[in-house]
Design a protein that fits this description.
With 208 residues, this protein is mainly α. 76% of the residues lie in helices and 0% in strands. It has one domain: Ferritin, core subunit, four-helix bundle (Ferritin), CATH 1.20.1260.10.
Length: 208
């Protein structure tokens, strides 16, 4: 059961995720990449894709937070916290890139965060093997989205591409970590439901 101090700490994490500038220990992946000439339509499209990636990282932060709250194994908790830090860096990178492209972040981020936090807490409460299974499947699906974005970004937008590529590498690593720790394979209906929810999020955030 959570005590008051921990509740306050977790609430503070949520506020920082949604409203504070995210920190990054690693350099921005696109720091040494030159900005390419793009049309306004190309910039708008790239910004929308990076906005989706940013919202995905908002959801990831909430999922990891919820899962860590209810995970039983101390090793699993620590692994989740480490992965959450890398997701925080992704927040910094994607937010920076969205603004460079003249875009804005999703207005619905508080909604996505709250829902993801609840899902993460439920997943953690089911037990560590299912918690990790949910994590592994989530990261696989995020990786698939990133690969799609790499295929559909404007060809000359090397800056956005370098950010998405490093994120993809990290997400694959998180999925592999979950499997190594004993992740259970989720039932197909659960995977399909997750994909359906993901499609709703991505299609909405592209515009809002």
């Amino acid at each position: 059961m959570l005590n008051l101090d921990r509740c306050i700490t977790e609430f503070d994490k949520g506020l920082r995720t949604l409203f504070a500038k995210a920190p990054t220990a690693r350099p921005y992946p696109d720091a040494s990449v030159e900005e390419a000439a793009m049309s306004e339509a190309e910039k708008k499209h790239a910004a929308a894709l990076m906005r989706i990636n940013h919202t995905g990282e908002i959801c990831a932060q909430a999922l990891y937070q919820g899962q860590a709250l209810t995970a039983r194994d101390a090793v699993v908790q620590e692994k989740l916290k480490h992965a959450a830090w890398e997701e925080t860096e992704h927040l910094a990178w994607t937010s920076h890139r969205v603004h460079e492209l003249g875009g804005r972040l999703s207005l619905l981020n508080p909604f996505w965060y709250t829902g993801s936090l609840a899902i993460g807490a439920v997943a953690g409460a089911l037990g560590d093997k299912w918690n990790l299974g949910f994590l592994a499947e989530t990261e696989r699906q995020v990786g698939a989205h990133l690969q799609h974005h790499l295929d559909t970004l404007p060809p000359q937008d090397a800056k956005s591409r370098s950010v998405a590529q490093q994120m993809y590498v990290d997400e694959v690593g998180h999925s592999d970590m979950a499997v190594e720790l004993g992740a259970a394979e989720l039932p197909l209906p659960v995977k399909l439901a997750m994909r359906g929810m993901s499609k709703v999020m991505t299609k909405t955030v592209y515009w809002v």
